[in-house]
Amino acid sequence: MKTVAVVGSGASGVASAFALQAAGYQVVMLEATKNLGGRMGDAYLGDRRIDFGGKNIGRNYPLFRQFAETQLPVHYEFFGINSASVRNGRLYRIDSESRLKTLLNMVDLIGPINFLRIARLAWAVRRDPENAFLGGPYFRRVAQRYDHAPMSTYFGDQCLRHLLRPMTVRMNGAEPDEYYLGNIGSNIKMILDRYDQIKEGLHTVLDAFFESITVMRETVVDGLLMDGKRLFVGLSG
């Protein structure tokens, strides 16, 4: 059995290691820190183990669900996406479980023109799954036309304040004018999905996977050297 080294234990490293393991390779994972999982990692708050990220698993994430269910029996619980905004003393809710009410609230909150613009972008994502990813064909054309300017040139201030800002700050850690229209397809895809969390915690799945491979913590990759068909990895730690 051939051995393959995977550098890093974050989402990309885990996905690569899982695919290699499924293909019959022996995997050695090299992690520079003590903690595993990268942005999917965890820490203790008192005696309670807390997951950092990756907790919300879309129902349109079949590969991740396959990975999780391959490690151990998992039990899901629904996790809804919701937000709220106040305008002129009225509370408007954006709730993934009350879609008709949410659509009516959106029309009233951001105006019909901005609503139609959002709907057009959502239709592009629904029509072609490639548009849910960076560089999708529709949003590549949108980017060529609009990405030289901030989002406020396409959507009004009302839409930015009440709809887009909660979305970009929560999903991307960025203000709307630090974000670009050509990237928004991935956000819309996330909003259109429904989400669950693993009751036992994501860390239980990752723990089971890391136990199935060889993991070297506090091992830094200093460099790579190719010699013909051989690859040498320089390590420290």
TrEMBL record:
This is FAD-dependent oxidoreductase. Pfam families: NAD_binding_8 (PF13450). It comes from the Bacteria. It comes from Acidithiobacillus ferrooxidans.
